Amino acid sequence: QVQLVESGGGLVQPGGSLRLSCAASGFTLDYYAIGWFRQAPGKEREGLSCISVSNVNLYYSDSVKGRFTISRDKSKNTVYLQMNSLKPEEPAVYYCATRGQLCVNRQEEYNYWGQGTQVTVSL
């Protein structure tokens, strides 16, 4: 059974850091592009970052560029999103999703989604 499970969310103060994990079961993540997304209450889901197959291409939205880093650990079948300098406006449910080999902007082209992990940024 294909499954993605996010973890690592929680409460962090503004300016703090979190590392989110996206662990896969039922398939090998290394053969696919993985994207990270987030959705805050009342807002549309937003694409944050993507890593293509074999880590050839890395993409970041303007809102997180320079603060977030996506990476892949083949041995653990896991993709990470290191989030630094978190801002008060960034609380949301963070999701990972997978598709073919290449990253794309269209979220509807991502086939499998995790259940999400909550990130709260507050004093």
Description:
The protein is mainly beta. The chain is 0% helix and 46% strand. The protein has no helices and 11 strands. Strands 2, 4, 5, 6, 9, 10 and 11 form a 7-stranded mixed β-sheet that branches. The relative contact order is 0.31. The mean pLDDT is 95.
Amino- and carboxy-terminal Cα gap: 40 Å
Large-scale geometry: globular
Mean pLDDT: 95
User: Helix coverage percent of residues?
Assistant: under 10%
Number of helices: 0
- Given as residue ranges, the uncertain stretches (5+ residues, pLDDT < 50) are none
Beta strands, count: 11
Structural category is mainly beta
State the order of secondary-structure elements, H for helix, E for strand. Answer: EEEEEEEEEEE
**Strand percentage:** over 45%
CA-based gyration radius: 13 Å
Largest sheet properties:
7 strands, mixed
Give a brief outline of the structure.
With 123 residues, the protein is mostly beta strands. The protein has strands spanning 3-7, 10-12, 18-25, 34-39, 46-51, 58-60, 68-73, 78-83, 92-98, 112-113, 117-121. The strands form 2 sheets. Strands 2, 4, 5, 6, 9, 10 and 11 form a 7-stranded mixed beta sheet that branches.
What distinguishing features does this structure have?
123 residues, mainly beta, seven-stranded mixed beta sheet, four-stranded antiparallel beta sheet, globular
